[in-house]
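Encode chain A's predicted structure.
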Amino acid sequence: MAKIVEKLKKNAKKGNEQGARRAVLEDLFYDFNSSKAEVYKMNFFRGIFLGFGTVIGGTLVVALIVWILTLLADIPGGTGDFIQYIVDTVQDSSK
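Encoded structure for chain A:
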């Protein structure tokens, strides 16, 4: 931690605030991650879980929208027919 503070003070005296911030971030990164292999492994699993969560979340959102549209399909007039057409199209494409 002392090394980080020294770099921060050194770069701040030069008027290089961006350089000081970069130095602090680099030191913190290397303090928490001892090897590149560990970083790659962590980012790999993070990417897998991000992709999986995105797919599950998207599926739930689409299912919720279709459910809400089925509730609105009973509206009289052209709007209800249009919504029913959308619901039928989504259900036919999923088969």
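The two ends are 59 Å apart (CA to CA).
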